[in-house]
């Protein structure tokens, strides 16, 4: 150990007595200071102009634009300049012969020199640590472990680069050649992950060998044994190769034996890498304060209940627009979607089935108008350089599974060993892939039965099968829409009571929306029986339907008021009312508090006011209401396209706060019954879910999402919200930016430069 220490000390002396090491430190310091100051200043300015800050630690240090992410992007430029002379200069000066003739082993030489590089890497880390310490004193409740995890990632990456550079330096006596070779190997390790991804056996090897993104998880706050062991294995591999190189020079051996040693070391490294990537052998630590790199508690609870085997089979239709996500070359990337789930269920299997079958794809219709499905699939397979035989024909895939209900789209089938199944879909939005909420909802279906939602039909109600603007298809059972009930743990079906039908006993929620023709007495009685028994209900009204729908709510103590609500607006129709969340409900439900805090409104295109009593045996809570001014119940105007409504108190019109959504609850036989009454049925319509209005914060899926969560007692949709990170403030004003820039971009690098000059001058005098 003493010998290794002396070699390391000697190497550090030569390193810090040379201008190169100091020049790198000064440039690195200035570059990182400039990056940090820019990120920090942006948030200070945001805070100064009144914008709310959030996740300050992540935004400055660890996200894709953060300081640590920027450091890893240009770190590879510095290390080859440091390592190029580690062994090359020994050959140039002839001192390598002295080392070989001395009682120093090859291992001691390599480890000693590498130890010096590890210490230099710590100096680089110390520079970054200055910015973290600065943040500790200026950021409210800074997430320190989060940044330390990132520092670990940067340090391991630097050490890996140094080990590679040391090996390259041992191969040649030319320092420039050693530096170029190091850059070449680093480039190879960055791109090797893209090699052979179409070949099953080679795919996993090259993907593991790739160094690209290896420190991303650590910078992102997740310390995974696989990533840490990857760096340790790579470091050990190149150190062993360096030792073998010196051994070959020191003592000539038969070529076959020398080659076998190199091959053996590489194979051992690959085998250890394989072991480290086995899910059952992995360990994890989430360093973030909000545990954002770990499944939320609700998802973890679902995974605990999924006992026994579990498989996820991805069905990839070559004729469907989203096929590329499941191709063999993207398989490892696709599997990362389930990485957090595999952490809690290591035995989870991932399978892929490839086929072709008819589906909606306008692009193919335009490109190959005269070809049939088989010919189109063959053309695509040839263009993608894939073996057409790997794709099952329509007849062959139907023998395995019928995907017609899924429109033959890209879909995953989650299956337990007991035979329970659930589909997991991708969606027609920017993100495409399912998030934790949708994945957990699909898995939870096999633990907690889906919530059965019955939509009353037969009297002109909103239809869940039709796609017109006023219907309910999108929010209920559109498989391509992320927020649809069917994708979040609900099963929807139509309910006809016109032929003396009964409400099924397993109905969890009954939806009665915009009844256009009067219900028969038998139908009213059946609905009343369901309510009296404690069934959960949504009732959504419309102007002009008061006489038809009010009989439904007599026992509830609620009625739709006459007329229709209008709201003064310069940009929108008067009949469009923007409902706001009440403070009462925001205090009780955190989700609604979020809507209130950010002033999110629920658009209601045709609304009526709700009148209610509090003595009907229910706990009553208003969820949505109008503004206190500018809104009244219009009694006379009917043609709003040609006429403008004018407030007329003499006609019985009142300008006041109107309740637009009302929640009722009561205890029945040990169970809480929940009923939601809404003054507008359009807020759940197809047209509303695709509508964006400028100048108003509206997000149509938010309110129904919360409403159905309440009606299902929080079972579905899955709540994947996390606590807010406490780092929401910076203790520095605009006046501090200048001094920060002077200190970090001026004094800091100049101090290092001065230190280097002093040491270099002392060395020269000696």
TrEMBL record:
It comes from Butyricimonas faecalis. Keywords: Membrane, Transmembrane, Transmembrane helix. Residues 452-696 form the ABC-type uncharacterised transport system domain. This is ABC transporter. GO terms for cellular component: plasma membrane. The chain crosses the membrane at residues 12-30, 71-88, 109-134, 146-167, 174-193, 218-241, 262-285, 738-761. The keyword Transmembrane helix applies. InterPro entries: ABC_transp_unknown, Class_I_gatase-like. GO terms for molecular function: ABC-type transporter activity.
């Amino acid at each position: 150990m003493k010998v290794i220490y002396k070699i390391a000390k000697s190497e550090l002396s030569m390193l810090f007595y040379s201008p190169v090491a100091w020049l790198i430190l000064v440039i690195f310091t200035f570059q990182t200071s400039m990056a940090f100051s820019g990120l920090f200043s942006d948030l200070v300015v945001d805070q100064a102009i009144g914008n709310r800050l959030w996740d300050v630690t992540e935004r400055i240090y660890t996200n894709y634009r953060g300081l640590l992410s920027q450091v890893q992007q240009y770190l590879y430029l510095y290390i080859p300049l440091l390592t190029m002379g580690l062994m090359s200069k020994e050959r140039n000066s002839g001192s390598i012969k002295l080392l070989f003739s001395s009682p120093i082993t090859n291992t001691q030489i390599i480890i000693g020199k590498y130890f010096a590089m590890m210490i230099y890497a710590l100096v680089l880390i110390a520079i970054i640590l200055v910015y973290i310490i600065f943040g500790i004193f200026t950021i409210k409740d800074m997430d320190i472990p989060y940044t330390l995890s990132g520092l670990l990632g940067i340090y391991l990456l630097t050490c890996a680069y140094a080990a590679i550079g040391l090996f390259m330096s041992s191969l040649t006596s030319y320092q420039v050649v050693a530096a170029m070779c190091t850059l070449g190997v680093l480039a190879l390790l960055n791109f090797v992950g893209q090699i052979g991804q179409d070949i099953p056996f080679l795919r996993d090897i090259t993907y593991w060998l790739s160094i690209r993104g290896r420190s991303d998880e650590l910078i992102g706050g997740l310390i995974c044994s696989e990533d840490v062991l990857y760096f340790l294995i790579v470091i050990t591999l190149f150190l062993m190769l360096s030792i073998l190189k010196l051994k070959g020079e020191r003592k000539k051996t038969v070529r076959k034996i020398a080659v076998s040693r190199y091959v053996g070391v590489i194979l051992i490294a690959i085998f250890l890498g394989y072991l480290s990537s086995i899910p059952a052998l992995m360990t994890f630590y989430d360093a973030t304060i909000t545990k954002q790199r770990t499944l939320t508690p609700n998802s973890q609870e679902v995974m605990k209940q999924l006992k026994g085997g579990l498989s996820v089979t991805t069905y990839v239709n070559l004729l469907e627009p989203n096929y590329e996500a499941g191709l063999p070359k993207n398989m490892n990337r696709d599997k990362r979607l389930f990485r957090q789930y595999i952490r809690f269920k290591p035995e989870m299997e991932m399978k892929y089935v490839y086929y072709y079958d008819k589906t909606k794809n306008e692009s193919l219709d335009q490109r190959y108008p005269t070809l049939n499905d088989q010919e189109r699939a063959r053309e695509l397979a040839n263009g993608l350089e894939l073996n057409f035989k790997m794709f099952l024909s329509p007849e062959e895939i139907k023998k395995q599974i019928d995907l017609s209900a899924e429109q033959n789209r890209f879909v995953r089938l989650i299956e337990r060993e007991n035979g329970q199944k659930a589909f997991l879909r991708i969606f027609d939005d920017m993100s495409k892939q399912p998030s934790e909420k949708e994945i957990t909802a699909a898995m939870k279906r096999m633990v907690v039965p889906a919530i059965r939602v019955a939509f009353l039909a037969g009297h002109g109600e909103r239809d869940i099968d039709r796609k017109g603007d006023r219907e309910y298809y999108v929010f209920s059972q559109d498989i391509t829409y992320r927020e649809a009930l069917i994708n979040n743990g609900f099963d929807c079906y139509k309910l006809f009571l016109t032929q003396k039908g009964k409400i099924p006993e397993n109905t969890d929620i009954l939806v009665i929306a915009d009844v256009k023709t009067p219900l028969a007495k038998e139908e009213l009685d059946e609905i009343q029986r369901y309510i009296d028994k404690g069934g959960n209900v949504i009732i959504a009204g419309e102007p002009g339907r008061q006489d038809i729908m009010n009989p439904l709510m007599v026992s509830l103590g609620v009625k739709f008021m006459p007329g229709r609500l209008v709201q003064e607006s310069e940009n929108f129709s008067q009949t469009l009312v923007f409902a706001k969340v009440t403070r009462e409900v925001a205090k009780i439900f955190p989700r609604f508090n979020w809507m209130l805090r950010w002033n999110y409104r629920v658009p209601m295109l045709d609304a009526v006011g709700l009148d209610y009593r509090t003595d009907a045996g229910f706990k009553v809570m208003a969820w949505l209401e109008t503004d206190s001014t500018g809104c009244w119940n219009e009694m006379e105007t009917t043609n709003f396209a040609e006429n403008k409504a004018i407030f007329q108190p003499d006609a019985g019109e009142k300008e006041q706060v109107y309740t637009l959504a009302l929640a009722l609850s009561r205890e029945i036989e040990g169970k809480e019954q929940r009923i939601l009454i809404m003054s507008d049925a359009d807020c759940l319509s197809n047209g509303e879910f695709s509508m964006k209005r400028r100048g108003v914060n509206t997000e149509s899926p938010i309110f129904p999402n919360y409403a159905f969560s309440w009606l299902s007692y929080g079972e579905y949709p899955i709540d994947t919200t996390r606590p807010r990170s406490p780092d929401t403030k910076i203790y520095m004003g605009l006046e501090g930016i200048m001094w920060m820039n002077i200190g970090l971009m001026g004094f800091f690098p100049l101090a290092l430069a001065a230190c280097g000059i002093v040491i270099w001058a002392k060395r020269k005098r000696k």
